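A reminder before we start the practical. When you read a complex entry, don't treat the lines as separate problems. The point of joint prediction is that each chain is placed relative to the others, so the output describes one connected object in space. Small molecules and nucleic acid strands, if listed, are placed in the same frame. In the example below there are two entries. Take a minute to note the order of the lines before looking further.
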Amino acid sequence: MGIRTVAVFSEADAGALHVREADRALLIGKAPSSESYLRSDRILEAAKEAGVDAIHPGYGFLSQNGDFADACAAAGFTFIGPKGDVHRLMGDKKAARQQVQKFAVPVVPGYDGEDQSDARLAAEASRIGFPVMIKPSRGGGGKGMHVTNSAAEFEAVLPRARRESLSSFGNDFLVLERFLSKPRHIEVQVLFDQHGKGVHLFERECSVQRRHQKVVEETPSVALDADLRQRLCASGVAAAAAANYTNAGTVEFLLDSSGEFYFLEMNTRLQVEHPVTEMTLGLDLVRLQIEIAEGKPLPFEQWHLNPRGHAIEARLNAEDPRHHDAPSPGRILHFEPPHGPFVRCDSGVATGSVVPEYYDPMIAKIIASGPTRDAARTSLIEALRDLVVLGIATNREKLIQILESEPFRSGRIHTGVLDEIGPLPAEVPPSAEDLARIAEALEAAPSPSGVATASAETAPDPWAAANSWRLA
Amino acid sequence: MRLKVAGHVHNVVRKSATEFEVDGVRVTAGRASANATRHTRAFVVREGERVFAQVGGRNYLLTVMSRAAAEAAEHAPTQGELEAPMPGRVTRVAVAVGDAVKRGQELIVVEAMKMENALVAPEDGVVTSLSVKVGDMVAPGPALVVVEPAPEAAS
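Here is the predicted structure of the whole assembly.
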């Protein structure tokens, strides 16, 4: 776009890729994010020093912080995202649910009223419709939750749920909610300009999750037919309109196995998984975000948007799937991104990068597209096999296991599918052939002792053999 | 050369331009092998004695061993030598040299990326060596704490 970029960085990120690629980079504090990336005052000082026009908050840290959005505007900078009060409204889960309901967006049926009598709770359970989950109002982490499948079972379980809530949380106030069996996480990308016009960019399915963290995302979702897609996307636009939304945002829904969908929350920023939408629509979402922030009208109408084919993204994390997903910070001694005509690698690292221990473990996103879901899936598996990361543990093999699993292949996925797929099988020791290949590569390594900074490879295929120096 | 991986030491010797002998068995090496494909390329980086490898779509962490080290490794028990599971900072040291410990007891906690990882005693025994204190930065490799098994009579 011909816009010069200024990056900010913490002491731990002094050698990071984003620092190297920006036109200018400014240090804003120490490694812990509370002393750097979460300090809006330091970020605004840096913005003043560099004389920037606009601030893009990315997708972590302060990107959904309404006070930061306001502070940017007050200091005279354009904040690339919605206004502060929109962040605050959607950040309050209960207020957000109430607001979107006024615009006919479905929310999970429930009851959290003051009347806690047996009769009232039983009546509310019947109104909500079984199966109904009983939850302690103060609870969390699944503790004290009960799923009941009938009015009789509800009556039988209610006294126990009260006792457990009282003993675990010191309060026997209960909340009722429709229990969703094997729900899918499906979200709608929306885009609103500053002139009141909004469109949706269709859905993404992000059902493959570990502890509420997305691992594999795709578009379109195999769970939607044309009618359901139309209704879901319209609800996404309605929810955003309910908040007077501007810029790019994502409305998240849960889709029950019965085909009912419910509003979960709205993310008031760009999402990590936005590339799958870009690949099927041929759009650049960050460019559109900047144009909207500049006050330009949306450059297209809803009916201009026709997604093509299928795209899947896998998140590469610096973690060890064979050791309880323990983080694996450290120096990346060799990094080789995958290649291919329908493969994209958005990476925050390169050979020599240090993955700091302080931040989120995601180091790259690998995205593949194709005319069909299976074409995209097999391309992504190939790409993950081609991807080389040496020096730290990653979830690369775990991602391949997921993509090759029966539930993923068949599209029968839900938010608990990783439990179904199971842990990564135990490490297979290298075969004699593999050991010979490793020994051969070691002999050819440029620096056989000390810290080698380059990798050696043996080249079995004629194309790679063209690099004759490797075979010398 | 001797390569240690997954607890086993393998003897790998080059025999010809295309052949290696692995633990006494002859195999054809990577690029000359008939079933070689794009994904059987071996990528390796050596950092001191440690070798990071990716071959056949799998990652391995190997150690290049001298003859003496290889022989010692086959005899000496190393089960009680506990190393850091990942680079991080020691946030807790719960024992001192000479302490009797029970199997499963927490000895040291290493924190990285806001996750705590406890090193626990692999068996009942006595702490015979401790090389870290709270605040130290540690990485996989050296033993941080050593637990020697309790004598038969005590167990």
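Discuss with your neighbour: Chain A has four domains: 6-89, 110-178, 184-421, 432-471. What might explain this?
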